[in-house]
Specification:
- The two termini are 24 Å apart.
- This protein has 6 helices and 15 strands.
- The chain is α+β, with helices and mostly antiparallel strands.
């Protein structure tokens, strides 16, 4: 890869937990992780010291593991405690979800006990729209709304299930149950489909395999406390992979 100037330039976008900056090379961006915590579509907010540092390191390790296993991602390298260099992509405005156990909104919708192990992983999609509270949609919704096309959605589904097949045993060997996760996909300028956004305790439900202690954002959602400590446990276990 050619030599790049990694100095952040203009702020392109700011979300609930990250900022995206341009760099001199238009094919790349810098993603900066913030300490902001949010839940219930931004209704509940707080600052959690070093949450951004933890998520940056966690997501970097996970994406490196996925790249080793043939998953194409936007991730290039971690630059420092808070920043990653990533490929610029056009993000599909859909959240793609894989569920291995019933939890959160799905448990409520379907009247299932939290922690119920699903006979087969479930793939879901949500329309990324804060004003509508990211409603769940199906294939025909996505196509009718012009969010994506059937070929791309099918390819994303395959990749999401591949990610699940890689991460489930990886976390299991670290004593962690991957309950579910949500992520995003985008396309590079040449049309290559890549995994985008982040994979961290902010976007994954991660439970201790022995105690079922929640080591993810549900600690913030449900006022369980020790949020940074729980994220730190996930990081320390992932660092064992090195």
């Amino acid at each position: 890869m050619k030599e790049l100037d990694f100095t952040p330039r203009n702020l392109i976008y700011e979300g609930k937990s990250k900022q995206i900056f341009a760099v001199d090379d238009p094919d790349y961006v810098i993603i900066r992780y913030k300490d902001d915590a949010s839940a219930y579509n931004g209704i509940k907010r707080a600052q959690i010291t070093n949450k951004g540092v933890l998520n940056n390191k966690i997501s970097s390790i996970i994406y490196q593991q996925l790249e080793k296993n043939g998953i194409k991602t936007h991730f290039v390298k971690r630059l420092n405690d808070r920043e990653q260099l990533c490929r610029r992509k056009n993000v599909i405005p859909i959240e793609f979800v894989a569920r291995n156990r019933a939890a959160g909104s799905m448990a409520i919708r379907l009247g299932l006990k939290e922690g119920f192990e699903l006979p087969t992983p479930i793939f879901e999609m949500c329309y990324k729209n804060d004003e509508l509270d990211d409603p769940i949609i199906n294939y025909t919704h996505a196509i009718a709304l012009g969010l994506s096309d059937s070929d791309t959605i099918e390819k994303v589904k395959i990749e999401v299930m591949r990610v699940n097949d890689i991460l489930t045993p990886l976390f299991a060997q670290l004593g962690v149950t991957l309950v579910d996760f949500k992520t995003e996909f985008g396309k590079l300028p040449d049309g290559t489909l890549v995994l985008a956004d982040e994979l961290s305790p902010d976007t994954c439900r991660l439970w201790d395999a022995d105690t079922n202690e929640r080591l993810d954002r549900d600690r913030f959602r449900r006022d369980l406390g020790r949020v940074a400590e729980a994220y730190g446990i996930i990081l320390s276990r992932l660092e064992q992979l090195k």
